[in-house]
Amino acid sequence: MYTAPTASTDPLMRLPAVLAVTGYSRSGLYLAMQECSFPRPVKIGRLSAWPESEVRQWIEGRKAARAAT
What we know:
With about 70 residues, this protein is an alpha+beta fold. It has a single domain, classed as Recoverin, domain 1. The protein is built from three helices and three strands, in the order βααββα. The protein has helices at about 15-20, 25-35, 50-69; strands spanning about 10-15, 40-45, 45-50. It has a three-stranded antiparallel sheet with strand order 1-3-2. A hairpin with a 2-residue loop joins strand 2 and strand 3. The relative contact order is 0.17.
């Protein structure tokens, strides 16, 4: 049974949005995923999207690593 999305649902980000917030190029993003330094997308049929919370966590991790040096 289908249930409508709620406010607590983690929105999904498509590739253009991920590239915009990370600053990666398309090839750079896929290289980072291959090296396991960036989260992999969720596959929904032929669609690929990243949970916004995982992308935000990755960004916060990069900030924390920069602050630690």
